[in-house]
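I can't quite decide. Please look over this sequence plus structure tokens:

:::
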Amino acid sequence: LEHAIEAAGALSFYYLKRGYQVGAHFSNKNSRVIHPDSGQAQLRKISRELSELSSQEGNYDFRRSVQVCRRQILRYVPECFLITRLDTDEPVQSNQVPPALDSLVGGVKALMAYGSRGHKSVRVNIVAIAGYAYTSQNDEGNSIARLIRSLETDLISRSVRRYGVNVISWDPTSTRFSDLLLSHALSGRGQR
């Protein structure tokens, strides 16, 4: 959770300092929608909401978050950032799609549909926090687990990219998010 908070705070700071309007919705709690605005007061609102987040077990449906934010999405056609881990869910059976991935793909499709109604399209970015970063790097057994988690994350990233999503992979053990954000912005993908 702390890495997701770091990423959300850095993204908010980056875009607000450049004069953009930033809004937010946190799907791991029943939070209110922070309507898009700019300036220091908006940064304080988002920071306050981030500081109140807690790690809770449960299924969070991204489609529901998209539905909650529907009015703002249709009005502003924003560039959306989803901060999550792509490898946290196990399928019920080996031939089934994990429920969280199904929810993610459904939400992404809904976002794309909202953008296609107008002239501009919604740009969706997923900040994929590497789940394999949480395993110990010293143990040989854990290095195999890290490799499997890495392959799993890559597979899910490829399946989500098919829908036009930009996946930004982040390993918090090797890179600070601010450095990753800077390289993302310098490559031209962080411009609107």
